[in-house]
Structures are given as structure tokens and as C-alpha cells.
Amino acid sequence: MYTELEMLIDGAWTLGAGSRRLQVLNPANEQVLGELPVAEREDLERTLAAVAGAQAGWAATLPKERCRILRGAAEIMRGQLDEIGRHMTLEQGKPLGEAKMEAAVGADILEWYAEEGKRAYGRVIPPSMPTVLHQMMVKEPVGPVAAFTPWNFPVVTPARKIGGALAAGCALIIKPSEETPAGALAIARALEEAGLPKGVLNVIFGIPAKISEHLIASDIIKKISFTGSVPVGKHLTRLAADGMKRVTMELGGHGPVIVFDDVDVEKAAAMSVAGKFRNAGQVCVSPTRFFVQEKSYGDFVDAFTQKAKALKVGDGLEAGTQMGPLANARRLDAIDGLVRDAVERGAKLKTGGERIGNSGFFYAPTVLAEVPDDAKVMNDEPFGPVAPIVPFKTFDEAVHQANRLPFGLAGYAFTNSAETSAKIGAALQTGLVGLNSFTISMPETPFGGMKESGYGSEGGIEGLDAYLATKFITQSGAV
Predict the structure, then answer these.
(1) Whole-number mean pLDDT of the chain?
(2) Would you tell me which CATH number, out of the four given (3.40.605.10, 3.40.50.300, 3.40.50.150, 3.20.20.70), belongs to the domain 7-251+453-473?
(3) Which residues are annotated as catalytic?
(4) Which residues are CB-neighbours of 8 under 8 A, at least 6 positions away?
(5) In angstroms, rounded to a whole number, what is the distance separating the alpha carbons of residues 350 and 156?
(6) pLDDT score recorded for residue 1
(7) Which one, 27, 52, 68, 388, has the greatest CB density within 10 A?
(8) What is the CA radius of gyration of the chain?
(9) What is the mean pLDDT of residues 201-212?
């Protein structure tokens, strides 16, 4: 029914040196799915030795051979979509259809990086001095990588880091979320079956702070890649600064959605509900603050509320489920607190605002109207199924509201005006912008934020370059 929970260290599947275990729960019924091993200090040292020993050989492996292994793993994953998806739903809660689609995208990411790794080009630079014969820039693997991934996308997020690092020629240690380990384990097993040499990829679990501090402090690790909250990202960046290690930080957001009054309100509301309640709103690029122009505000709120009420909430394995449970009890308390705070400050609760049932971490899709700026939900990333909707009058007012927070991951706008599209695309201070669309992440496109939402990109050629160092070589005549 569920996957075997082990760590992968230097090509061997292991329960580790200690006896401590962490429980993995099913958020739909709170039952224990399995027990996860905890990496002790001895395990971390073995893992560091593994990537140190594997780095030179993997860096020297021809790009076409790396491509063969990554593409082979992608094909293996495509043959296991039902199994990977089911495991994801069991441990994370999202509907099975969403889980299987994520597994398929994870395979696509590996395949895209497999091909792009063959194109880590340098360039020849014409010399400006007569004594210089050649000038060229080359790209080299940055070295062993430590990567850390969250629980909300257990396949896609590890696939981005694993695919980018391996395609660039970097050995890797990855610590996925202890709440959703199955996705990263499935990727690792697929790569092992495809012929990945031992030690090139290592998967460990344990106490997050202890693992990150130990790995980042090691001279062996040359690059850090983290996806998660802003406070943790800042902490890891400080740790990396002591060794001047390169970092990619994909942190939290608070995605504004600006709906201008020249659009089809029903269509915009339908797309917004689908985007908002995907994965129960537990998405870093989730649309989380809706600003609707006054003329369309009332109709949009009514349409959005009606569609949110109609969503079928339940176990992700049940047919017809459109939204599953929250991933853990922490999210239940957090969302409930945000809703109560907003109502106390004058917001109008249009639907939801309560837990569903007594078993599992289910929370009703929630819509809040006329939410004041000082409500916590307008300032703190909700990461759950709550949608605050407020009116605006002018373009400048909407831009101010969208950009006033320190976050800058994703922003969205709906308009049928080419001029407004161009202006709002330029005005939004976010690394990702969706115009009349919530589809802003594909294997071939960069994914990353601005301001406190982090820096660096995953995906696209930018995601490969994150694991490559730039070297300039110049040659003059004989001496």
C-alpha cells in the first residue's frame, strides 16, 4: 500500500546508524503510513564522503551518458505514475489526479535536463590585444550540492534540484520533507535502475536543522539549493555565507491577482477558483490576494463564492475529489487563525471558515470579502484554502496593493487589453507573472522570485546554470 522508507547513502539503501524513527501520517485519516529513519552524525559523514568520492567521476562523465541515465529514469517513472501518485496522495493528501500529473511533470523535468545538460556551452571571445591568441569561457560543475525540499510538491521540487545538479555534473545530497518522503525515493530508485553510479545521489532524512547545519558547514559542499519558507531560507543563507557557498533560494510568496473590469467575470472566477484551491492552496505560487476592479467586484465575489462552495472536498483517493485535506495539523490551526483574525477586523465571510469533520486535516474552501489591509491574511502567506477578495478603483491603486509586501514570487492579472497587459506585466514586482493564466511553471522555463521570495532560478537554462561555475581561459604566445 505504501513505499518502503529508507535512506540512500553511497549507493546502499539503509535505515541508518541509529534507531530513531519519524512517523509519516496520512492527512486524510491521521493514520500512520510508515516510519522513517533518522540520519545520525555518522550517516551524515558517510553521505559527505560519498559525494566527495563521486564528484570527480560524475563530472568527467560525458554529457551524453548523463543524458542517457536521466532519460532512462524519466521513462521508468512514467511506467510507475499510478504507484507514485498513490503514494503521494496517501502522504500529502492532494487528489490522485493532481498527484499523477505531478509525477508525470517530474519525469518531464528529468528528461528536459537530460537534454539540456548536453548544451552547457561556453563561448569564444575575440581578443582585443595582439599578443593574445585565444580567449574562451567554459562552464564547469560547481561541485557537490546539498538540497532541501518541502512537503507540498514531493516529486516536482526534488526533480528540479536532482535534474539540474546531475545534468550539470554535480553529485548531490538531498533531504526531502520527512512528511512526504515517497516522491524523492521514487526518483532515486528510478535513477539507480537507470544506471546512476553510487554516491552521485544520496537521500537522507532526519532533524532538518541538524542536517542543514552539518552539511552546509562542510567544506565538501559547494552549493545549496532550498525551497521553503522565508525565515528558514534566510537562516540557511547566513550559514552558507560563512563558506561563501553559492545558493538558490526559492522562498514563500503572497501572490496578487488583479482582475480588471474588461474581462469575462465568470471565466476569470472559474480560473481563479481552480488556481486558488489546487493542492488546497498549499502552493508557493498560489494566487492568494484577489484585487478586483469595482465595476466587476460584486459579480466576481458571487461567482467565486458559488464555485468555491461547489468544490468536492474529501480523501484524495476517492473518485470526484477536487480538494484534499491540508497536509498537517499545523496548517489547520494557521488557516483558522487567519480567518478569525480577518472576520474580527471586519471582513465578510462568504463561505467556509471551518474545519470539516473530526478525522483528517480537512478545511472548507473559504472566501473572504472586503478584507482590510491590516488583516493578517493580507500580509502573511496563508498557504491554505482561503481567498481574500477586495475591490480597487485605479490601475495605480492595484499596482500599489500588489507590490506593497516584501514578497515577490508570483503575480497574476486578467485583462483583455493589450496595453494593460503590457503595463501590468512590467509593473508587478515578481519573478513570475501570469497574464490571463495561472500556468507559470514548465520544465523549460525559469522559476524563481524577487525581494524576500529569494533569488536564483530553477527550471530552464537558468536552472542548469545554477549548478555551473564560469571559468575564463586566456592564452598568449610562447614565452
Answers:
(1) 97
(2) 3.40.605.10
(3) 250, 284
(4) 14, 185, 188, 192, 201, 202, 203, 204
(5) 34
(6) 84
(7) 27
(8) 23
(9) 97
